[in-house]
Amino acid sequence: MSVRALPLLFLNLGGEMLYILDQRLRAQNIPGDKARRVLHDIILTMFNKSFIEELLKPQELYSKKALRTIYDRLAHASIMKLNQASMDKLYDLMTMALKYQVLLCPRPKDVLLVTFNHLDTIKGLIQDNPALLHLVDETLRQLIEVYGGLSAGEFQLIRQTLLTFFQDLHIRVSLFLKDKVQNSNGRFVLPVSGPVPWGIEVPGLIRMFDNKGEEVRRVEFPHGGNYVTAPKEGSFEVYGDRVLKLGTNMYSVNRPVETHTSGTSKNLSSQAQQSIAPNPLAKEELNFLAKLMGGMEIKKTSGPEPGFRLNLFTTDEEEEQAALTRPEELSHEVVNIQATQDQQRNQELARIMGEFEVMDQPRWSASKGDDLLAMMDEL
Amino acid sequence: MFRRQRSIPLRGSAAALSNNLSVLQLPVCNLTHFGVVHGPSAQLLSVAPEGVPLAQRQLHAKEGAGVSSPLITQVHWCALPFRVLLVLTSHRGIQMYESDGSVMVYWHALDSRDASPVQAMFARGIASCGHFICVGMWSGRVLVFDIPAKGPNIVLSEELAGHPTSVTDIASEPAQEQDPAGERGKGSPCLSPQDCMADVVTADDSGLLCVWRSGPEFKLLTRIPGFGVPCTSVQLWKGIAAVGYGNGQVRLYETSTGALHVQINAHARAICALDLAPEVGKLLSAAEDTFVHIWKLSKRTESGCTEVEHCHGECVPDTQVCGARFCDPSGSSFAVTGYDLAEILTFSSE
């Protein structure tokens, strides 16, 4: 699969996470300065220069477990805490939103416009912070450098790689159901009307030529859809009109989000089998992950700033209930990162690991079958 | 008029790949075999008439060095003069099996020395021609394997260099006779009519097509340039290359001259599969826009032109189609796979 898909996956999922957290912080009436602090801390961590550099190196896509671990850490990069049920729901919403956006991208290359939409909106959240704005702009520039020269074929491979990551996820999101972009069976609606992607002609015409290249006949045929030509192309510059709406913020205070996690288990047997099956390459993946997270600088909380817990549900009881009724197949298994005794890489990693413990988070249990993790010594 | 028939359930959903359905028709035993790629595994199904599934088997990509478990890119049955082999391409190499998938007869690992850090390695694009099987590579090379009438003594016969970017699909047809008067051969760089029996077409991510004549040494006959859009699927019929592109167009080229004969604005999204019912000249096109179209091709021998007529269009609602094939030689039934869909949809006009 493509070795260029990871940055797009990471940044877009991160963008969705910020949209959802922003909405919940306001819905839960968290004081403005605390809410701003949380978002700023997460954005600062996400766009850390060496982290982004590491991310942009050509590499295979991580497993779902590894990605989930990164977002757990990212969500806890500040004074905010999330219970497992809320973290699960947050991750469900993030992944289904991005699945929808990738699936509905008119052209494979438009997944880059989706990424730019996320980054543009993130910039909107940090208008008061020029240093952070600069970090995001830098990331935009680097994305343009890496992706600007890729061919349509390479973007097609990136899209296929991303779709493989989202395969068999059919969690129903009430906002999508309400907007009729998702069916009750969890599948997204693929419209057959509207503008064709930029660079594609409206279907319906057959042109026939002779050996000299002269057109001898043209015939129309009924193509079944209701398409019109594309109005204009979105901008791939640092600043510009993206035209595409996918990747912009669809949440607002008045549109609370619930997920339905029941009734979607039919196709999950294959997915569950994949995550439980022992993966002999988990160790290599962990090394990548540790290296990547080693680049994530965690801003130390200065002074006795009190943390707070964010709830993705409307009440605490709902959150408890969700934790109890979550189907087994959907439990997101999180990797337990423990440093190795390798002296060469140990010091810096140990310091970073130590910082992760500051917020007194619950220790996520290691997933079944990860015997290799058990081989790593506890720090 | 086509009607939906009984769907065939799959153990795992179909992956978002191009050409993600292979069909082996076995009229003698009244069976049809289907092959679909799920991800790290592919599923083979044996189906009786009326869509009744009889047997199924799962094949996995052979593991090798790397971070994640390897993904399969394509599964395809290759009909050779004395046997049928099932070929499976992945990010690690090429696996060949007896037609029911029971025994692996050959394994070819991708050479990691050729690997580039900025590009993933994979094999993709499978076709048989005569007693050869051609398989495309991420690098643009096409491997040609010489297949014996039976047994595992398969040999890599040649590596064709013709493509600057990753191969997407390969098509072949039995060598065609050029017209004896040499009318259409005029101006072509062939020594004799027999030299111009183009029977293999390879395509790549840049949209470039290479037309080859197969043999102990393959000969490159024509190059048909692309136009910046990947070619996702290709078929060959009576010396005409039918080509599907990432911009939803289907184009028909005369392979001996490279001349464009027909251009169809067929779909609103990238084409994912083309198939032929060669005896009746029917072409099937399927795309990510949820549509499948059937076309009737005809060659006008006097003018040398090719004509196309639209026969039928089918919408598979809310499904990003990833594979489609005719299920019988007369083109009166076809099957479709879609991304995330754990079933094969079948349609019939009988």
TrEMBL record, chain A:
<protein>
    <submittedName>
        <fullName>Organic solute carrier partner 1</fullName>
    </submittedName>
</protein>
<feature type="region of interest" description="Disordered">
    <location>
        <begin position="256"/>
        <end position="279"/>
    </location>
</feature>
<dbReference type="GO" id="GO:0005886">
    <property type="term" value="C:plasma membrane"/>
</dbReference>
<dbReference type="GO" id="GO:0005737">
    <property type="term" value="C:cytoplasm"/>
</dbReference>
<feature type="compositionally biased region" description="Polar residues">
    <location>
        <begin position="259"/>
        <end position="277"/>
    </location>
</feature>
<dbReference type="InterPro" id="IPR019332">
    <property type="entry name" value="OSCP1"/>
</dbReference>
<dbReference type="Pfam" id="PF10188">
    <property type="entry name" value="Oscp1"/>
</dbReference>
Automatic annotation (TrEMBL), chain B:
<dbReference type="InterPro" id="IPR036322">
    <property type="entry name" value="WD40_repeat_dom_sf"/>
</dbReference>
<dbReference type="InterPro" id="IPR015943">
    <property type="entry name" value="WD40/YVTN_repeat-like_dom_sf"/>
</dbReference>
<keyword id="KW-0853">WD repeat</keyword>
<feature type="domain" description="WD repeat-containing protein 54 beta-propeller">
    <location>
        <begin position="1"/>
        <end position="349"/>
    </location>
</feature>
<dbReference type="InterPro" id="IPR049546">
    <property type="entry name" value="WDR54_beta_prop"/>
</dbReference>
<feature type="repeat" description="WD">
    <location>
        <begin position="264"/>
        <end position="298"/>
    </location>
</feature>
<dbReference type="InterPro" id="IPR001680">
    <property type="entry name" value="WD40_rpt"/>
</dbReference>
<protein>
    <submittedName>
        <fullName>WD repeat domain 54</fullName>
    </submittedName>
</protein>
<dbReference type="Pfam" id="PF21031">
    <property type="entry name" value="WDR54"/>
</dbReference>
